[in-house]
């Protein structure tokens, strides 16, 4: 299975929604753990990288696309 490519600043879709109702998250920190922030309620969660990769469904908007739109 192909490994999903993601980077800092990407908006990703998770398999299960956040309790506020949205399943879109923004990656705001990367390392051994990944901090993601809910796009809906702005709540942030620190998740181990292995758990994040298993719960990640797809990358909706990459950081480079977001920067191009704002330019």
Can you tag this structure with a few keywords?
71 residues, alpha+beta, 2 helices, 21% helix, globular
Write structural notes for this entry:
This protein has 71 residues and is α+β, with helices and mostly antiparallel strands. The chain has one domain. The chain has two helices and five strands; from the N terminus they run ββββαβα. The chain has helices spanning 49-55, 63-70; strands at residues 11-14, 24-29, 33-38, 44-48, 56-61. It has a five-stranded antiparallel beta sheet with strand order 4-3-2-1-5. β2 (24-29) and β3 (33-38) form a beta hairpin. It is globular. The model has no long low-confidence stretch (mean pLDDT 88).
Strand line-up in the sheet with most strands: 4-3-2-1-5
How do the SSEs run, as a string of H and E? EEEEHEH
Question: How would you sum up the global shape?
Answer: globular
Q: Please give the count of helices.
A: 2
Q: What is the total domain count?
A: 1
**pLDDT under 50 segments (min length 5)?**
none
Instruction: Tell me the span between the first and last alpha carbons.
Output: 35 Å
Number of extended strands: 5
Overall pLDDT score: 88
Rg calculated over all Cα atoms:
12 Å
Question: Main sheet?
Answer: 5 strands, antiparallel
- The level of helicity is 10-25%
State the secondary-structure class: alpha+beta
Strand share of the residues?
A: 35-45%
InterPro entries: DUF951 (IPR009296)
Protein name: DUF951 domain-containing protein
Pfam families: DUF951
Organism: Paenibacillus alginolyticus
């Amino acid at each position: 299975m192909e490994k999903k490519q993601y980077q800092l600043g990407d908006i990703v879709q998770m398999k299960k929604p956040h309790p506020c109702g949205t399943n879109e998250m923004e990656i705001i920190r990367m390392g051994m753990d990944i901090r993601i922030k809910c796009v809906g309620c702005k709540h942030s969660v620190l998740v181990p990288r292995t758990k994040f990769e298993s719960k990640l469904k797809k990358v909706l908007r990459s950081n480079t696309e977001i920067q191009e739109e704002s330019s």
